[in-house]
Amino acid sequence: MGDAGTIVWLFVVFVLLIFVVIVLVRSVRIIPQARAGVVERLGKYQRTLNPGLTVLIPFVDRLLPLLDLREQVVSFPPQPVITEDNLVVSIDTVVYFQVTDPRAATYEIANYIQAVEQLTTTTLRNVVGGLNLEEALTSRDQINGQLRGVLDEATGRWGIRVSRVELKAIDPPLSIQDSMEKQMRAERDRRAAILTAEGTKQSAILTAEGERQSSILKAEGDAKAAILRADGESQAIQKVFDAIHKGNPTQKLLAYQYLQTLPKIASGSSNKLWIIPSEVGEALKGIGNVLGNTAGNTDDADDVAKDALP
């Protein structure tokens, strides 16, 4: 009997130890950072647990599943929405929200994620339903702002704060996509044609400007060359004139030089007819006197000049 009593006593002690361990485990809880716990006492809300160590009353207090206080991102599946011009577009939405009141998020709504999804869908249909397709594609910021305002106001009593709502994609029907692609292709072709025409125009303008500048420079060069040639001839004539005056030539020498020049004047192929100046007679008269000719009248000198010509 002594051994049996010892065994019973040891069994009771062991059961008591197990019970104490269970009580300690259920009464001591550690709440991680950025988490919150709701405690119910006898089925009624008692308090909200903050991060850290806390003690509960076993079998009286019950800790509900912890809530994540960090900002959460939920992507909802595409939703068909009808625009003002009766086109069905598929819109993907992304909602950024954060639990600010664990008690309200637990007792005010059964499933706040599903509630946010449904509210987003209905609000999106109301907002996009008042826009046509082009406005819906180009007014994302406006749609995001209206969605955020409606969701934040509605979810405030649920203990949720909606920080951002983004439209991830707006997909129009395939027929509309084909039409938009054709329109964009035509627009690109038009811009390319305009750029090509502008390039051709600029090229023609630059070419004409270059030719004009070239003509101007060439004309300026010809003018300068003509001026230089005229200056050179003028200086040459001046030097010859000065040399002749310094040499003090006689009338007979000048007449002889003038007579030697006449064949060169007549040798040109374009000289079919030319007129003998009256001074030639005087020159020939002087030459005749030098050579000893007795003919003294101007008519004989003219005859001599005619014979000297080819």
| Structural class by helix and strand composition | alpha+beta
Number of strands: 9
Residue share in helix: 55-70%
Overall shape: rod-shaped
Uncertain ranges: 293-310
Strand content: 15-25%
Q: Roughly what is the average pLDDT, rounded to an integer?
A: 78
- Biggest sheet architecture: 4 strands, antiparallel
The string of secondary-structure elements, in order, is HEEEEEEEEHHHHEHHHH
Distance between the termini: 179 Å
Whole-number radius of gyration? 59 Å
Number of helices in the DSSP assignment: 9
Describe this structure in words.
There is one protein chain. With 310 residues, the protein is an alpha+beta fold. It has nine helices and nine strands. Helices cover 60% and strands 20% of the residues. Strands 2, 3, 5 and 6 form a four-stranded antiparallel sheet that branches. A three-stranded antiparallel sheet has the order 7-8-9. It is rod-shaped, with a radius of gyration of 59 Å. The C terminus is likely disordered.
Please outline what is shown here.
By secondary structure, the chain is α+β, with helices and mostly antiparallel strands.
Write the layout of secondary structure elements.
Layout: H1 2-27, E1 28-31, E2 35-41, E3 44-49, E4 52-55, E5 61-63, E6 67-68, E7 72-82, E8 88-99, H2 102-107, H3 112-128, H4 133-138, H5 140-155, E9 160-171, H6 174-247, H7 251-266, H8 279-291, H9 298-308
Antiparallel strand pairs: 1-4, 2-3, 2-5, 2-6, 7-8, 8-9
Helix pairs in contact: 3-5, 7-8, 8-9
